[in-house]
Recover the amino acids of this structure.
């Protein structure tokens, strides 16, 4: 069975991405990150999702991005915005270089375990304006990956897979439901409470997607 590394945050998109990799028959090796994020409760979701898929190993890497700061997700002095889900600017919830760092770890892990696929749930349709979710970023990271590992030197390409890249949030939810992904175990709220707040950008985008899909969101909200 071929192996695949899946970046698993514990949120809706990464869990759907995990379900896609599982459907394709890969032996899944999820990798999650404790980067001292405000919403660290998502790691509980990631562990539950990993257990749901009965993975052999769930790797959790600690990297203190709180030290860098500059984001509402890592600096508790910066409030999480309660704004609109559509925007053209880059929001304060952007974590500098996060996907670059995460994919670099995943690339190293894939090389060690002999995986030729890395799945990441980035999305460029219904997204929060993050530059490291764009197809251009993934394309350039792939070029970097093709020149930066022993595996690549031996002709063993490690491919970055982005199955959700061109899907709307509605379509991601419909895909997750079709694949029977455990959405009830996921956490998407940026504020990190036991219940999702229902008013941060991430909650609003998720709720909008469920509404458009005509499906009830299985997680609990403070405000819905």
């Amino acid at each position: 069975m071929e192996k695949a590394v899946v970046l698993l945050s514990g949120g809706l998109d990464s869990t759907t991405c995990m379900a896609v990799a599982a459907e394709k028959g890969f032996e899944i090796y999820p990798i999650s990150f404790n980067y001292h994020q405000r919403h660290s409760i998502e790691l509980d979701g990631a562990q539950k999702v990993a257990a749901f898929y009965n993975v052999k190993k769930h790797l959790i890497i600690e990297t203190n991005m709180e030290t860098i700061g500059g984001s509402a997700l890592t600096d508790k002095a910066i409030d999480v915005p309660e704004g609109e889900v559509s925007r053209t600017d880059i929001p304060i919830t952007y974590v500098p270089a996060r996907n670059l760092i995460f994919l670099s770890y995943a690339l190293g892990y894939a090389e060690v375990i002999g995986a030729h696929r890395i799945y990441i749930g980035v999305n460029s349709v219904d997204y929060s304006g993050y530059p490291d979710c764009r197809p251009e970023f993934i394309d350039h990271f792939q070029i970097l990956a093709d020149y930066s590992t022993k595996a690549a030197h031996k002709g063993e390409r490690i491919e970055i897979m982005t199955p959700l890249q061109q899907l709307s949030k509605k379509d991601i939810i419909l895909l997750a439901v079709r694949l029977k992904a455990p959405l009830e175990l996921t956490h998407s709220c940026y504020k990190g409470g036991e219940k999702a707040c229902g008013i941060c950008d991430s909650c609003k985008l998720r709720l909008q997607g469920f509404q458009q899909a005509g499906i009830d969101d299985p997680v609990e909200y403070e405000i819905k």
User: Anything to note?
Assistant: Residues 10 and 45 are 5 Å apart (CA to CA). The longest helix spans residues 98-113. The two ends are 42 Å apart (CA to CA). The mean pLDDT is 93.
